[in-house]
Amino acid sequence: MIKVEKEPGERRSTGGIVIPATVEQSNRLVWGQVCGVGHHVRTVKVGDRVLFHPDDQYEVEIQGENYLVMRERDLHAIASERPEHGTGLYL
């Protein structure tokens, strides 16, 4: 189960152009926080920050909060707190 991180409404490009909140980007990956894992999950644990594509995922509401339920193989990357070597992302 993943809780999607809220993106700020307005953002800036690297060139300084302001992109309003109403602009929708179709193939954008998003970050989320892992809130629960199943029995057969090997590399992801509760509390990990993961990168995934939000479309075609199952959404569930628990105690007024929305979560996404997905398979481990649908994740693109897991952020590492301490990047010893490389970018700090692994899969």
From TrEMBL:
Key words, A-Z: Chaperone
Chaperone found in the keyword field: yes
Database matches in InterPro entries: Chaperonin_GroES, Chaperonin_GroES_sf, GroES-like_sf
SMART domains: Cpn10 (SM00883)
Keyword Protein transport: no
SUPFAM superfamilies: GroES-like
UniProt family annotation: Belongs to the GroES chaperonin family.
Name this polypeptide is given: Co-chaperone GroES
Organism: Actinomadura keratinilytica
Source taxonomy: Bacteria, Bacillati, Actinomycetota, Actinomycetes, Streptosporangiales
